[in-house]
Amino acid sequence: MRGKVLGGSSSINVMAYTRGHRGDYDRWAQKGARGWSYADVLPYFKRCERWEGGENPWRGGAGPVGTEFAKTRDPLYDAWLEAAAAAGFPVTDDYNGKQQEGFGRGQYTIRDGYRSSAATAYLRPAKKRKNLDVETGAHATRVLMQGTRATGIEYLKGSGDVVRVEADQEVILACGAFNTPPLLIRSGIGPAADLRAMDIKPVLDLPVGKNLQDHLAVIIFFQRLNESTFLTQMRCDRMAVSMIRAYFFGTGPGTVVPGGLHAFVKTRPELAVPDIEFMFRGAPAAPHLWFPLIRPAYVDGYGIRPTLLHPDSRGEILLRSADAREPPRIVYNFFSAPNDLPRLREGVKRARDVAYQKPMAPYRGVETSPGEKVKTDAEIDAWIRNTAITAHHPCGTCAMGIGPDTVTDPQLRVHGVERLRVVDASVMPDLVSAHINACVLMIAEKASDLIRKKAPLPADNDA
Fold first, then answer.
1. Fewer CB within a 10 Å sphere, N or C end of the chain?
2. Are 23 and 272 in contact (CB under 8 A)?
3. What integer is the mean pLDDT of 241-269?
4. Which of 17, 43, 263, 206 is nearest to 117 (CA)?
5. Residue 124, SS3?
6. Residue partners of 308: CB distance under 8 A and separation at least 6
7. Which residues 6+ apart lie within 8 Å of 410 measured at CB?
8. How many Å apart are CA 65 and CA 50, to the nearest integer?
9. Got the DSSP string for 27-95?
10. Above 90 in pLDDT, residue 366?
């Protein structure tokens, strides 16, 4: 599930703006990604965003990507915050600010009522530049190589015409964690054994496609005792008006995401960074439009979604064939590492603990999933295995660093290849304690300086 559209997945995601914990980036630097510590990347996060609260030591106020607090007006989320405090969890005013751990009001990439994607924030303002050509309806097939030097790109256009473009300076790949690896492998850059299995002549033996990681999640649902504003807004005539307002004016309920909270928590106090995220949903699993006497309203509900932030399991991206039109094989290997399932199970227990605190009582109806009968570790594990889904945060398949398990160096250049760079989620060494959209935008901001050979922004060691 990726965004095959201008702006990539930033054009179809839920727009959550979560940067992660400072310890995530310090871990990257400690593992060999020099120049990517929290102090190094914070200035690029700030340069990227236009925070509705204006600039402060942790937030940027003049960048292209609009960011704002959730506009949801539902007392349910205030009750969640009270329940979190009652359960002993920290509460933060800004999880992208000084205190990154805890329950906090949701933040989204929205500006003036409209989605603030990579396309609207960066591409649209640049589209009239004379040195920019955007080719749509095209499918990249391989990097053109002369020995170990990248010289251009080949792609299929329209009905299958082959087009080759030569690069004056360097080739930059930004196809994402799923699609950058196949492009490199078809170009002869990847695990030698995998290349030979596809009758592709190896150019460089690198662990391209390995180290695949993603967040895995389940969701606990409850029926709601009182009617939510979202349910009333889902009446057909009201929603029609809301969507018109949203489309033409960027105002009204159609511009509000039905979620107003995120939480990043530790299941053990000695952990360096949060290991579980709670995502919150202010609607049941399958809400629908309704209208009196024509289609009845759905049974209202809400949910809390425990998500494993730092799985030990590793997957890989493989080719199905050398044909570029064939989608890649995505092999996740979820729960192949022994600690992942117990940690997510602990997240489920902690989520239930919050959900059954007294402040939630006025809202809490029947627990519909997994249900109150699912209690033992074995029962919870079985439910997790049957219902867990990816949170759509894939990364790490061209990891940056200096060791043999990396594909790119800290300047995002492919090891051993001249004039070839990768700028997308595949270069992340491992997952951050957050959704990855904000992280990818930061990587692109920092990459823009690397590509232009500009001095990096001064590290911020005071924040």
1. N
2. yes
3. 94
4. 17
5. helix
6. 215, 216, 217, 275, 276, 340, 343, 344, 347
7. 32, 33, 34, 35, 36, 400, 401, 402
8. 6
9. HHHHTT-TT-SHHHHHHHHHHHEEETT---SS--BSSSEEEEE-----HHHHHHHHHHHHTT--B-S-T
10. yes
Residue 31 has pLDDT above 90, yes or no: yes
Instruction: Output the average pLDDT for the chain.
Output: 96
Give the closest residue to 140 by CA, choosing from 93, 199, 181, 89.
Answer: 181
Rounded to an integer, what distance in angstroms lies between the CA atom of residue 16 and that of residue 26?
23
Residue 408's pLDDT is: 98
Only one residue has tokens 């005792």, namely: 225
pLDDT at 258: 83
CA 411 to mean position of chain CA atoms: 22
The secondary structure of 213-243 as a DSSP string is B--EE--EEEEESS--HHHHHTBHHHHHHHH
When pLDDT is averaged across residues 115-120 and rounded to a whole number, the result is 97
Name the strand (E) or helix (H) holding 42.
helix 38-48
Query: Is 50 in contact with 64 (CB distance < 8 Å)?
Result: yes
For 374, other C-beta atoms within 10 Å of its C-beta total 18
Q: For 24, how many CA atoms within 13 A lie in the half-sphere containing its CB?
A: 23
Q: What is the pLDDT of residue 159?
A: 83
Structure tokens, 174: 């930004």
Residue type, 163: V
Assess contact for 189 and 413: CB atoms under 8 A.
no
pLDDT of 463 over the 90 cut: no
At 374, the pLDDT band (50, 70, 90 cuts) reads very high
List the Cα angle 33/36/42 in 5-degree steps: 170
Q: How many CA atoms lie within 13 A of 362 on its CB side?
A: 12
Phi, psi at 377, each rounded to 5° = -60, -40
- d(CA 104, CA 101) in angstroms, rounded, equals 9
**Tokens coding 148:** 């170990």
Q: Does the CA dihedral 66-118-442-167 come out positive or negative?
A: negative
Catalytic positions are: 393
Model confidence pLDDT, tens digit, residues 299-315: 999 999 999 999 999 99
Q: Are 94 and 102 spatial neighbours (Cβ–Cβ below 8 Å)?
A: no
Ordered alpha helix ranges (H), 131-175: none
pLDDT in tens, 197-238: 999 999 999 999 999 999 999 999 999 999 999 999 999 999
Per the omega criterion (within 30 degrees of 0), is the bond before 125 cis? Answer: no
Q: Provide the CA 186 distance to its chain's centre, in angstroms.
A: 26
> Phi and psi dihedrals of 379, rounded to 5?
-70, -40
Q: What angle is formed at CA 40 by the lines to CA 31 and CA 213, rounded to 5 degrees? A: 45
